[in-house]
Amino acid sequence: MPDTPCPACKGAGLTEHEEHSVETDQDGNQVPVVRRWTGACTTCHGSGLG
Ligand SMILES: [Zn+2]
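Above: inputs. Below: predicted complex with zinc ion.
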């Protein structure tokens, strides 16, 4: 089994994730919120291998 790097994260095992949601602020207004974080690649599950 060849050790080919995962094409999604290029072997790093980590990728940028982005989540969009809508939250209600203290005035009752709905505001769009985007959260970004770096976490385990969903393609290779963090192994870095494709
Ligand atoms: Zn990956």
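The chain has no helices and two strands.
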